[in-house]
Amino acid sequence: MKTKIWITGLAMATAMSVTAPVMAEGDVYIPMPVYRVGPYATGGTGYFGGIIDYYTLMNMKEGGVGGMNIIWNECETNYNDQKGVECYHRQKEFQGKQALFFDPLSVGISTSLVAQGRKDKIAIIAVNHGRTEGQRGDVFPYYFMPGINTYDEHSIITAYIGQLEGGMENLAGKKIVLLFHGSTYGREAVEFTHMLCEKHGCSSEAIEVPHPGNEQTSQWLKIRRSKPDYVVLRGWGVMNPVAMQTGVRMGFPISNLIGNIWSNDDGDVKPAGSSANGYQAITTHPTGRVAKVIDEIVANLYEQGKGDLEDKSRIGSNYWNLGVMAGVIHLEAVRVAQARFGADVNSAQVRWGFENLNLDTARLTELGANGLVPEIKTNCMDHVGGHQAKFMRWVYAETKWEVASDWIDGDVELSQAIIDAKAENAIANEGITPRDCNDPAQRDDFEV
Amino acid sequence: MDFDWVFFIELIVGGLMSGVMYSLVAIGFVLIYKSSGIFNFAQGTMLLFAALTFVKLTEGSVNFWVALAVTMATMVVFGILVERFMMRPLANQSLLSLFMATVGLAILIEGMSQYIWDSAIHGLQLADFLDLALLDPVNMTVFVVDYIDWLDILISKFDVFATIVAGTMILVLAVFFQKTRTGMSLRAVSDDHLAAMAVGIPLSRVWALVWAVTGIIALIAGLLWAERVSVSFTLVEAVLKALPVILIGGLTSIPGAIVGGLIIGVGEKMGEIYLGDLMGVQGIETWFSYFIALVFLLFKPSGLFGLKAIERV
Predict the structure, then answer these.
(1) B68-112 tens-digit pLDDT
(2) Predicted ipTM?
(3) In this structure, is the dihedral angle defined by the CA atoms of residues A93, A94, A98 and A101, taken in order, positive or negative?
(4) Contacts of B240 in chain A (CB under 8 A)
(5) Whole-model pTM?
């Protein structure tokens, strides 16, 4: 019995010594709330794999960020809100170092942490998604959604459908169905989809797919009954290939099924096989080895057997590229903060960094990320900063996406009204005192 | 607004086809219960493991038939291991202990599947391997050719294929249970395993056999589910729909599993579309199938085809 205890203890000690990173003087700490298992692991392994690969590259190439070595520590959230919040509390401090920010890639988790992040002065990051009124930095100073928000996304999709129809005026009389994931994330777009159709004269219907979305016969029968011209897919994980397969099985033309930003991964279309041929989806970041930074990751990590992805064929895939994009944005925010406050920055100072991003073409070229990361310029009133996207089309025979459109701008004017209304609602109901972004003192106060 | 009869018929047909998929899983539950009195909670994960093993082998360029044979062999070995390391040590324990052991087995298989293979979503296109007209790949430009366009009612060819497979499997199982010596041994063990042992039926061998057969059924069901909804870990949740199916059909009846599956398939679709519209809500089919099962239980506590438990007190 004693021997067994010793062996178990030794095994545990060995495992802990192998997996737990150790902080040292001159390190910065970033939590890594991954989801490597469960139904949404395709997104989680790709996204967090991309971030880890970029951080590793920066540690190798530049000794970290601003000369500070980057340390991260993983916590498995399973894409579960409760587990994600637990991970935040477990990870907001590590070996005496405060986390610089928290990026869980989950609307549910990030939304649950809006108030807590502000209390702890830790920015909550939601790249290309999130609680849309969080764009208003005066109301939500510790919440950032760099790239596009939900409303940008759906107004861009509507604009693209307009292009397919030969002009926005031709949307009148058309019918658009929003097929959405039964979650906080999925429901976020329902109201705005109806608003967009009201503006453009089309009719709209929202159909919910219960989590996890691997049985959609009822939903596609409803769609068949409604006879829409287009179906906008706001899916996640297994819901995406099942939507393509079931839709085609029900006789819906796949080219009229338009995917949102979380329905555009190789891992979404490949399982659907030939059913996915011609499927179109929005993107902020092209897939493939489209930027210098990706070539560097391949040369310095994967060719040396150090990359995070187990399956090398996923290099350049949508979620992995999004992860690299997120890594670039993360560390640029740290650099912006370091430029003002010095190398050893805290989380409130990094928050200021996220609020003052200026990733223009020149800067992206310097970072080797031009072609991968869209231009993003944030400020006190705009925590999104991008507001544009392209479309791509899946070519089954060649197992790749092809670019289907140029950059299309979001309908910021329409979305601003609903964002402002929701922000005012939050001010009234959540006891928030907004900052005055026109006041330089308040705008530049990093410790809001 | 006039009632849309064409849509109504399509709804029924779609529900029946979904029901067939649930029945395929329910048969596995029934088989284990009939032979050992155990409710095998691991049935869903066995299905996932079988489908994932097959898909990963074919993705690794292993020939279809070789992959099928290897996966079948894996499931047979799995059955033997379950008998040796789970059933045999727990042979004299209560049924609740055995049930809890299958819960543990389910968690173990799920974890091991992710460890051995991965947790990504995988597709399976049987048409890539089988030269069957019913599995023709979809022609995107004229998609209607892939469907039976009868009276303007849409029926998926794949669903017809799944129904044929399910029907064949039921016939084979019926012959196996009723006409073969091994099948009768299984039934004898199910009725009274002590009496069966007394007349010389080798209990261990019979249990190993039934777990192996269940593994093969899990593979067949897994391949059809994979073709229909891809292979991912959410399959485990999807096949839990088999629970209301066996509540309705009875735990001991294979025909019950079929009828129960069809009732649940049609019932949940009708609930989602018509009741959902009436109540102004969506996504009710996830719980509505259990509601249907509970209503049935009120009137037929042992299911439509289940044996009534009669005990001398």
Answers:
(1) 999 999 999 998 898 889 888 887 788 888 889 999 999 999 888
(2) 0.82
(3) negative
(4) none
(5) 0.82
